[in-house]
Amino acid sequence: MDAERIEKAAIAIFVAQTNWATPNPDNRQIREWWDAQPDMVKDATRRLARAALESQTGEPDPLEWVDADMETLDSRTVKAVTKDGTIVRGRTVAIHGSLDQLTVEGILQPLLMRLPGEHWRLASGWKSLVFYDKTKEQ
């Protein structure tokens, strides 16, 4: 999810929850008070904003997979699209070897491949994919 969008939503929540000295604070006042908040307060407000935004889209925040380790990607819910437009949804299965591979349960064609020390790459035949958190399956 877009960090700028989350930040704007967090500031809006902060404004709504703050007991302001003046009824309509201007943007400068809002920014000064937001910037003065401890990181703990800002992070908690951002979590609220993220949850609110995710509830609007109906989809969980996708996992960044390019530099993820094998354990992070194994047994995840994934939505992948082939180059011809077929949509595949399922759980991932990790295959360790000289060439690390990730497949979707029941599909033999690899989804992602990685040589040791390199980034994950989409295998041929795939156009895009999105991993979702284990607890937020669709």
Q: In one word, what is the shape?
A: elongated
- Give the structural class: alpha+beta
Mean pLDDT: 85
Instruction: Count the E strands.
Output: 6
| Main β-sheet, spatial strand arrangement | 5-4-3-2-1-6
What percent of residues are in strands? 15-25%
Largest sheet: 6 strands, antiparallel
Q: Please give the radius of gyration in angstroms.
A: 20 Å
Describe how the helices and strands are arranged.
Layout: H1 3-17, H2 27-36, H3 39-57, H4 70-73, E1 77-82, E2 87-95, E3 100-104, E4 112-114, E5 121-122, E6 126-132
Antiparallel strand pairs: 1-2, 1-6, 2-3, 3-4, 4-5
Helix pairs in contact: 1-3
How would you characterize the overall build of this protein?
With 138 residues, the protein is an alpha+beta fold. Helix content is 35%, strand content 23%. It is built from four helices and six strands, in the order ααααββββββ. It has helices at 3-17, 27-36, 39-57, 70-73, and strands spanning 77-82, 87-95, 100-104, 112-114, 121-122, 126-132. Strands 5-4-3-2-1-6 form a six-stranded antiparallel β-sheet. β1 (77-82) and β2 form a beta hairpin. α1 crosses α3 (39-57). The protein starts with a helix and ends in a 6-residue tail after the last strand. The mean pLDDT is 85.
Compact summary:
By secondary structure, the protein is of the alpha+beta class.
What key attributes describe this structure?
single chain, 138 residues, alpha+beta, six-stranded antiparallel sheet, elongated
